[in-house]
Amino acid sequence: MIPVRSTSFFICCCIGIAAFHVQGALAAGTKVDVCHIPPGNPENVHTITISESAVDTHLEHGDHLGACDPTQVRDGGASGTSSQSACICPRAGVWRVTNHEGWMECNVLGIKRKDKRPDKNDGAIWILNDNCSTIFSEAYEKQREDVIMDRGRDCLFFGAAPGEEDGAQVMFDGAYKVETEEFITGEYHMEMTSMGMKCTGYSPFQIDFLEPLNEKKYSKLEKRMQKELNKARKVLEEHREQIDQYLEKTDGGKALGGRNGSG
Question: What is the fold, at CATH topology level, of the domain defined by 8-19+88-257?
Answer without folding.
Answer: Porin (2.40.160)
